[in-house]
Amino acid sequence: MGVAVGLSGFAFGVTSAGAGLSLLQTCALSLLVFTGASQFALVGALAVGGNPFTAAAGAFFLGVRNAFYGLRLSQLLALPRSVRPFAAHWVIDETTAVTLAQPSRRSARLGFTVTGLTLYVLWNLTTLIGALGAEAIGDTDAWGLDAAGPAVFLALLAPMLRSGTERAVAGLAVLLVLGFLPVLPAGVPVLVAALAAPAVLCVRGRGTRRTAKEAGR
User: Fold this and answer.
1) Of 1, 25, 68, 71, which has the most beta carbons under 10 Å away?
2) pTM above 0.85, yes or no
3) What 3-state DSSP class applies to 21?
4) Is the pLDDT of residue 137 over 70?
């Protein structure tokens, strides 16, 4: 997992350089943000002329999911307080998936550490290589490397959509993005898609209450 996903940092480096970001800006994003989906969302929105603040907001909301991952992993890993601020930087989709798949706390800690370290080192190294090699590649749009990040994200997300509610949220989010993509500025459709979860939960809650009332009659 660490090697496979870490190597896709090359695609981010190329895409970021193609979007007009400098080498320093590109490497800083991987070092300090270190969450691929948010990074690709940011540079993707900038590449099509999106407002920097809107692009940053879209990237931020995509990254919020890591906070929820952290709530779960903090209980599972039970790391010392002195280590938690550093470990938090490695709480991403891949480390969460590997950690949750482990049968014991010891193997969960090992899986989290190995995946996080491998990913962080390789992601930043390949980001640097991609940014440096962007000029040699030429037209980055022709290679379609900007699709690498979303493809990895979808591959990780799809197996987790087990319940009908989860699939409904994902489906509605996709429809919202596709529907508003032609009419809203770059980066904004991602923010609109965040409404999918409360909308589905609201409809489901009403249905549950209605069923409960009918059962009580």
Assistant:
1) 1
2) no
3) coil
4) no
